[in-house]
Design brief:
heterodimer, A: mainly alpha, 2 helices, B: mainly alpha, 7 helices, disordered N terminus
């Protein structure tokens, strides 16, 4: 969980910068960057959940 | 009365390729300080955005790791990636404390690792931004990879607007 929190700012900034740099229009790039960030953070959270489940399969009960 | 100018080269919305911009000098400036190349290329909004994001994440990495993020001896590959963010990395490498970092004692291992990753990510992002600067200079109006086909269809002229060829 700590790792996820530490890497959260990197995921958000990376998503935003990649979205803006890969788009012709700045505002549209910002929108796509926000989507990138959400996908990155969601993916990281999903991975963290998988790791937690692998360590202790009873956490969801 | 004088008519108002309909087109002005000083406006930031004008295509970058129409101006005298030495693109490799702009790339060099962007490597020195993230976003500076975009300012030179008269794209101040992009420049400010990239500076805040990339320099911010680099500085955050240094703060989180308490200045131990740059270490060419312990993290050679990460150091090369951090060099992409700015040559300031090189001066930080020369100025760093060569003694024990106190990993696990005074400095948590996760904080050190996170700082290293922050600064390295800043370098990779700066590389992406420099590539975008060069690409946008070569083709100012070309759609980027994030501009989907659907968006392109939206901007494409309708078939009845296209003039028939003689």
């Amino acid at each position: 969980m700590n790792t996820l929190l530490f890497l959260l700012p990197v995921a958000i900034v990376s998503g935003l910068v990649m979205g803006v740099s890969q788009s012709r229009d700045f505002s549209r790039g910002l929108m796509r960057g926000a989507v990138n960030s959400i996908l990155l953070v969601g993916g990281m959270a999903g991975l963290a959940l998988l790791v937690a489940l692998a360590e202790d399969p009873t956490i969801l009960r | 009365m004088f008519p108002l100018p309909l087109h002005c080269d000083a406006l930031p919305s004008a295509p970058m390729a129409e101006r005298k911009v030495h693109i490799w000098f702009a790339v060099f400036l962007g490597w020195m300080i993230p976003g500076l190349g975009h300012f030179y290329a008269r794209r101040p909004v992009h420049g400010a955005f990239y500076f805040v994001m990339i320099a911010g994440i680099y500085a955050a990495g240094m703060v989180v790791s308490r200045g131990t993020a740059v270490n060419a001896d312990a993290h050679g590959t990460y150091f090369l990636l951090q060099m992409l963010a700015s040559p300031i990395t090189l001066s930080l490498e020369f100025m760093r404390d060569r003694g024990d970092m106190g990993l696990g004692d005074s400095l948590p291992v996760l904080a050190h690792q996170s700082g290293v990753v922050y600064a390295a990510t800043a370098g990779v992002l700066n590389m992406i931004v420099l590539c975008e600067l060069h690409r946008r200079h070569e083709a100012p109006n070309a759609p980027g990879p994030s501009d989907t086909m659907r968006a392109e269809l939206k901007f494409r002229p309708k078939s009845d607007e296209v003039e028939p060829q003689a």
